[in-house]
Amino acid sequence: MDDATRRAAETLRAWIADTPPGGMVFFGGAGVSTESGIPDFRSPDGLYAQKHRYPPEQMVSRSFFDAHPSEFFDFYCERMLALDAEPNRAHRALAELEHDGTLRAVITQNIDGLHQKAGSRNVLELHGSVLRNACMGCGAPYSVERLLDLRAANPDGVPRCPACGRIVKPAVVLYEEPLDERTLHEAITAIAQADLLVIAGTSLSVYPAAGLIDVFQGSRLVIVNRTPTPRDRHADLCIAANVGDVLDFR
Q1: What dihedral angle (degrees, nearest 10) is formed by the CA atoms of 117, 118, 122, 125?
Q2: Residues 16 and 94 sit within 8 Å (Cβ to Cβ)
Q3: 49: pLDDT strictly greater than 80
Q4: Has residue 88 got a pLDDT over 90?
Q5: Residue 143 counted as domain residue
Q6: Is residue 165 part of a domain?
Q7: What is the CATH number of the domain that holds 7?
Q8: What pLDDT, in 10s, does the model give residues 118-152?
Q9: pLDDT of 102-123, one tens digit each?
C-alpha cells in the first residue's frame, strides 16, 4: 500500500477500535475471496470475461438452469466450485472481530462458505451457498460432495435424487430468482442498526443486494474496493486496496 492508502487503513482500524460492542457490520462481495484464489465476476480476469458457448451471465440464470441443466452443471461445477479454497486474511480478521464482540454480522454475496470456515458464526448469505443442495422434488438435502457423486453417476452430468429422480439444485440464488426473505430481513435489520458499516470487495452493481446500504443510518460508512463504486460519494472513507491488506491488523 502507498502512504495515503496506509493512512486510510489506519483510520478505519481506529474507527473499528472506537466502535461500541456489536456496532460494526461487514458487507462483502467477490473481492473478499479473490485472495483465496476464487475469481470474481467483473474484473478483466473474472468469470464474465472468460469465453464460453453461452454468456456466463446467462448460464447462471434460472431460465438457463431449467432449459439447459447439463450445460448449467458443466459451468457451475467447473467454474463456480472451489472446494479446496481456504480462508484468507480478510476472512480470519472478520472472525476475530466477531469473536471479540465488535462485529455484529457478516453479510456476504459470496457462496463459498469461507467466512464460516474461518470461524464466523453470524453470516448472512444473500446468494446462498454451494455447500447446501436439495432435491427439487422431495426436498432431500445433499452435501456438495454428494451432488458431485450424483452428477458423475449420470451420463448427462445432471445430479438427480436417488429417491425421486428429480434434479438436485444447489442452494444458490440464480439470476431471476428472489433472495431468501428471512436472510434479506436479517441483513436489513443488521445494517439499519449498525454504527459502522464496512462494504468491501464489491462493485455495488448487483441489485437488490447493493440497495441494502440505503437503510444504513449509522455514523460511519466505509468502502474498500480496488475500483470505484457508484456509492463512493456517500462514504465517509474510501480505500482502494485489497480487503486483506486493509483488515489484516498485524
Answers
A1: -60
A2: no
A3: no
A4: yes
A5: no
A6: no
A7: 3.40.50.1220
A8: 999 999 999 999 999 999 999 999 999 999 999 99
A9: 999 999 999 999 999 999 999 9
Q: Residue 250: pLDDT band by 50, 70, 90 thresholds?
A: low
Our count of domains for the chain comes to 1
pLDDT band for position 48 (cuts 50, 70, 90):
low
Nearest to 126 by CA among 144, 104, 107, 141: 107
Which residues span the domain enclosing 27?
1-38+86-127+180-250
pLDDT at 206: 80
Q: Has 185 been annotated as catalytic? A: no
User: For 50-56, which contacts have Cβ atoms below 8 Å and span 24 or more sequence positions?
Assistant: 50/79
Q: Known binder of ligand: residue 234?
A: no
* Catalytic choice (68, 99, 127, 234): 127
32 assigned to a ligand binding site:
no
Residue 209 lies in a domain: yes
Within 8 A by CB and 6+ apart from 154, the residues are 160
Residue 168 has pLDDT above 70, yes or no: yes
User: Is 199 flagged in the annotation as binding?
Assistant: no
Decide: residue 62, CB within 10 A, 0-12 exposed, 13-18 middle, 19+ buried: middle
**DSSP calls for 152-220:** HTSTT---B-TTT-PBEEEEE--BTSPPPHHHHHHHHHHHHT-SEEEEES--S-STTGGGGGGG--SSE
For the cut 60, the answer to whether the pLDDT of residue 33 exceeds it is yes
What's the burial of 139, exposed, middle or buried (CB within 10 Å: 0-12/13-18/19+)?
A: exposed
188 is in an annotated binding site: no
Asked whether residue 230 is assigned to any structural domain, the reply reads: yes
